[in-house]
Design a protein that fits this description.
It is a single chain. The protein has helices spanning 91-104, 110-118, and strands at 2-4, 13-18, 23-32, 35-49, 56-71, 81-84, 88-90. It has 120 residues and is α+β, with helices and mostly antiparallel strands. It has one domain (2-118). Strands 2-3-4-5-6 form a five-stranded mixed β-sheet. It has a two-stranded antiparallel ribbon with strand order 1-7. The relative contact order is 0.22. The structure holds zinc ion. Residues 50, 52-53, 55, 108-109, 111-112 line the site of zinc ion (ZN).
């Protein structure tokens, strides 16, 4: 899903994207001429390999995310702004990059997580 920056208003508009890789629901609204804010819940099940034991397991990413997207270069102090240069907000690309960021983080399977907690 892609939406043109100029069509986004300051009223929060709901969106929902359902794909095989993720489900995302939330709202988007314009904060200023060139800045759009997205607030959403992202659910993404994925098979990951545990960084500790090497076993594959189902990791269910399930979290609330809030981020800002800028139409062109962003000249402010907020470092977490995603810049787009074609005047469109690409929702799918945003979701996929959030999922990739989560996957590239260290992650332990449920077994290893339990061992961390109990200290066995
Ligand atoms: Zn493990």
């Amino acid at each position: 899903m892609r939406i043109e920056f100029r069509k986004i208003t300051s009223n929060a508009s709901p969106f929902e994207i359902k794909k095989s890789a993720f489900i995302s629901r939330g709202t988007f609204r314009k904060l200023s001429q060139k800045l759009v804010e997205l607030d959403f819940h992202l659910y993404a099940p994925a098979m990951l390999v545990c960084d500790r034991c090497g076993n594959e397991y189902l990791h269910e990413m399930d979290k609330k995310i809030s981020l800002k997207v800028s139409d062109g270069a962003f000249e402010g102090e907020d470092l977490d702004v995603i810049e787009y240069f074609d005047h469109y907000v690409d929702f799918d690309a945003i979701m996929l990059s959030e999922i990739e960021a989560e996957k590239s983080d260290y992650h332990f399977c449920p077994n290893c997580k339990n061992q961390e907690i109990t200290g066995e």
